[in-house]
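hey so u asked for the seq, here:
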Amino acid sequence: MGKLEETLERLRSQSMSSCRSAEPAGHEACPLCGGAEWIIARDSNGVETASPCQCRERAMMSRRLRFAELPKAFQGLVLSGFQLDAYREAGSRRTASFACQVIKAYLGDFQEQQEHGMGLYIWSRAKGSGKTHMAAGIANELLKSHTVRFSVSMAILQEIKNAWRKDAECSESSILGALGTIEVLVIDDFGVESHAGWIDDRFYQIINERYINRLVTIFTSNYPPMELPYDGRIVSRVMERTYQVTFPEESVRRHVSSLRQEGLLQKAMGEGV
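ran it, structure tokens below
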């Protein structure tokens, strides 16, 4: 392997998760580049040049999606699919409409927002109000050109606790390092866990690292930011580096379920079942 090939292979390896396999089981290497994602050419003098293989963009997107760890139910969600008519109350539809306008403006100006490390804090006391749906849509949109990680707050803490086991695949420092340095981090259900000193310590380490380096963090929560059950150092950093977006105080899960049931019933009746 030439020096250029070695360099490209090292850079490719560094772009993958250090704690998980970069390729799914059954992955077949590209027949053009053998999985290197670059085409190496040598001229008559033996000088090497590299050009990206046609598989590279697809492979990068695949890695981003796996690293993002978006649950399968959220991977197909797009912002254009967010339905305001899922809310029954007119006030809720107005609140959701305004939230959508703010988020659209934020994403339209994302490059500048990213330069300042500004994220979003999407909150509503109501469970099932659409916060996670919206955050997943934002993650899918940003995944097109950025490295994103989507994590539920409780899952982050469980991953840290798992690292304390003797047989752990990842160390706590590697987990905190990844969460503290990923380009865009989405933390869903921030604040739901029971208060404990070690939780404050870990979240402070993650959020402060991102604060210092002006990295974008997007939160969803059932708490207004000033009522978050965390150390004041965490709360102040969250407030300074996010735009607070209020969602409706109405749960749409039951309504959406009813609409689906009605749709299935109407379809069945139309087919004469």
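The beta strands are 38-42, 48-52, 119-123, 148-152, 184-188, 216-221, 242-246. Residues 11-18, 20-27, 60-68 have pLDDT under 50 and may be disordered.
lmk if thats what u needed
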